[in-house]
Specification:
The chain contains 22 helices and two strands. It is mainly alpha-helical and 538 residues long. A two-stranded antiparallel ribbon has the order 1-2.
Length: 538
């Protein structure tokens, strides 16, 4: 069976027949025709409403019609299509239909395409109708053929990515819990992701986040329809464009950059969906796959940072500062990626025992380090290696205070190592089902202790106790890292005038590393107990 042979794809046919029922098609077509007609009517009756004098008024209204239809197409695919993919995939998950398809001989990649193309099939049908209108309208506009041919592949690629992410989110959530009971979880996740990418783009001009969204497609189209906004500083506008349309300062076509940014995410989401269909109890990605994904993301981020710094324009008031904004963001990203990897690769007690029993049957004394049910030590080690290598590359490209960068990286790895030890120690313990204990402990260490420190600060000067209480929290650590890299710390350590070692930095670093050692020791003890329980049993 071919990958895109949809005639024998049960998942596709099931979703297609449900979404493409006659009442659904008729209502969708009627609404689409009405909205498209209103777009034409509004632009014809108000030809100068958004006219900027770029092109003749007689033609401009047709250009504005094309633009409005393009925006409407984005709403159809990116909003309603993503909602449909999220809803249908979650329904397949919650109803147990995926359990039925799991036993079928159909390849998992075919089942993935069945969900990807079948769930939003009505939205693709409506998009096709509006695309025919746009294709017929284009010859009467002043839009270049190159812009026309760029926009639709860019929009389609972004829509496929959004649909794939929504499907992965829906098939991965537990059947019980808040996310399993609310069908908008995947869409909400993508909305938050888009907001974050937009913020990173507008504040730092990082190309990777710009091209992960639908912004490149519409940015190119708006530039040829309306022209660039001349109210901006020309130097800043030029530099900003160079930064967001390059990687490692190498200028690339917009569609090529979008493909470089979105294709790895799309591939890994597809792998994750296939894994969850085959093994719902396993993690979304294997340890090796997660490490490759983290390395890919950090590589692209480093390339984006280098381009942003290289084309940095200090003359513009809101231009991002390489030190004060971008480097702290990179360190925070490492912290977040490390935490995600730890949560996604740490097995619970039953999974670890199952893996040990499997190893025993195979005559092995230990689980392979890359096994899904093995310890997360390999994940932490791989992430540490990736973070060190990428940080070395970034330091080579952007020279700066090496000691501060090293200390910041050590703090990040310390927090990741502590979280890995605490999480694994808890999940391997007999109390692993009592998740409230874990989150209560993390809440105390991460939130309540810093609050207590602030309360104590109000009654007495800052002391070692103040710093010690805050040292366990990665949120405080993130603030400290920003202070380190931006040189905002003015309090010397032990009354000396050292410009590098401070109360905050030194004490947090010591407590951080000590906590990581203790957490890893506890986790190692739990692993040893379970190993003895399996291998020493007659």
């Amino acid at each position: 069976m071919k990958i895109l042979d949809l005639r024998d794809n049960a998942l596709f046919l099931q979703n297609w027949r449900e979404r493409m029922r006659l009442p659904s098609r008729l209502s969708g077509m009627i609404l689409t025709v009405i909205i498209t007609s209103l777009i034409f009517l509004s632009a014809y009756l108000n030809p100068t409403r958004i006219y900027h004098g770029v092109i003749p008024k007689e033609i401009f209204w047709l250009n504005s019609v094309f633009w409005s239809i393009a925006v409407f197409q984005g709403v159809i695919l990116l909003v309603f299509g993503t909602l449909a993919a999220d809803k249908m995939a979650l329904r397949e998950r919650m109803s147990g239909t995926l359990d039925f398809h799991r036993s079928s001989p159909t390849r998992r990649i075919n089942q993935y395409f069945g969900l990807l193309l079948g769930a939003p099939s009505l939205e693709w049908f409506l998009f096709l109708g509006t695309f025919i209108v746009s294709a017929c309208l284009w010859p009467f506009t002043t839009i270049p053929l190159k812009a026309f041919l760029h926009f639709y592949p860019a929009l389609i690629l972004c829509a496929i990515l959004y649909h794939s992410c929504a499907i992965l989110f829906s098939v991965s959530v537990p059947r019980r819990g808040f996310l399993g009971q609310h069908r908008l979880g995947g869409f909400a996740f993508l909305l938050v992701l888009y907001i974050m990418t937009s913020v990173f783009y507008y504040s730092m001009s990082l190309s990777i986040f710009f091209h992960l969204s639908w912004l490149p497609a519409y940015d190119q189209l708006s530039s040829v329809i309306f022209g660039r906004n001349n109210t901006y500083n020309n130097l800043w506008d030029t530099d900003r464009l160079k930064a967001v349309y390059s990687l490692f300062t190498v200028s690339l076509p917009p569609l090529a950059l979008q493909t470089i940014a979105q294709l790895p995410v799309l591939i890994f989401t597809a792998i994750g969906v296939c894994r969850k269909i085959s093994f719902p109890e396993r993690h979304i990605l294997s340890k090796t796959q997660l490490s490759i994904f983290a390395a890919t993301i950090l590589f692209l981020v480093v390339g984006s940072i280098y381009s942003s710094v290289f084309y940095h324009n200090p003359r513009y008031l809101y231009a991002p500062s390489p030190v004060k904004e971008i480097l702290p963001f990179y360190v925070m990203l490492c912290l977040v990626l490390g935490a995600i990897q730890v949560f996604l690769t740490t097995p619970n007690r039953l999974q670890f025992l199952k893996g040990l029993q499997k190893a025993k049957k195979l005559g092995l004394k230990q689980l392979p380090i890359d096994d899904d049910y093995s310890s997360n030590i390999s994940t932490v080690a791989a992430f540490a290696f990736i973070a060190v290598v990428m940080s070395g590359v970034l330091n080579a490209l952007i020279p700066g205070d090496l000691l501060k960068k090293v200390i910041s990286l050590i703090l990040v790895l310390g927090y990741v190592g502590t979280l890995a030890g605490v999480l694994e120690g808890f999940r391997l313990s007999p109390h692993y089902k009592k998740q409230m204990f874990l989150w209560t402990g993390l809440g105390i260490a991460w939130i309540l202790l810093p609050i207590l420190a602030e309360i104590l600060k109000g009654s007495s000067p800052e002391t070692y106790l103040y710093y010690a209480l805050r040292a366990f929290s990665p949120f405080w650590g993130a603030e400290l890292i920003v202070d380190i890299l931006t040189e905002n710390i003015s309090r010397p350590f032990c009354g000396t005038s050292s410009p590098v070692i401070h109360h905050d930095m030194a004490l947090t670093l010591c407590i951080n590393l000590a906590a990581a050692i203790v957490a890893q020791t506890v986790a190692a003890k739990e692993r040893k107990n379970l190993h003895e329980q399996v291998f020493e049993k007659p």
